[in-house]
Amino acid sequence: MYEGKGYGVFKEDVAEVIVESLRPIREKYNDLLNNKDYLEQVYAIGADKAERQARKTLRKVYKKVGLIERKYLPR
Predict the structure, then answer these.
(1) Are residues 26 and 6 both part of a single domain?
(2) Helix count and strand count (H, E) for the chain
(3) Relative to the CA of 43, which of 7, 17, 31, 72 has its CA 20 to 30 Å away?
């Protein structure tokens, strides 16, 4: 197929195939990026999950170090 053609032709065809293969991913990325409500929801869920994990870790640290756990941490 590429016999007798320059390497540049092959590279252009490969680049085109890659661009077309990545098109659905790029479109999904752009859709998500433009959906601010969804992004805020994902951020909030992630923040809640991180806070729960941090509290769990702090409880373990307090216990190991011998500190008294703060019962009323602000939320």
Answers:
(1) yes
(2) 2, 0
(3) 72
pLDDT tens-place string over residues 59-75: 898 889 988 776 655 55
Which residue type occupies 70?
A: R
Q: Do residues 3 and 29 share a domain?
A: yes
- Per the CB < 8 A criterion, the answer to whether 31 and 37 are in contact is no
Which pTM was predicted?
A: 0.58
Rounded CA separation 70/75 (Å)? 12
* C-alpha 46 chain-centroid distance: 11
**Full domain range(s) for residue 16:** 1-34
User: Are the beta carbons of 31 and 39 closer than 8 angstroms?
Assistant: no
Domain shared by 72 and 55, yes or no = yes
Q: How many domains does the chain have?
A: 2
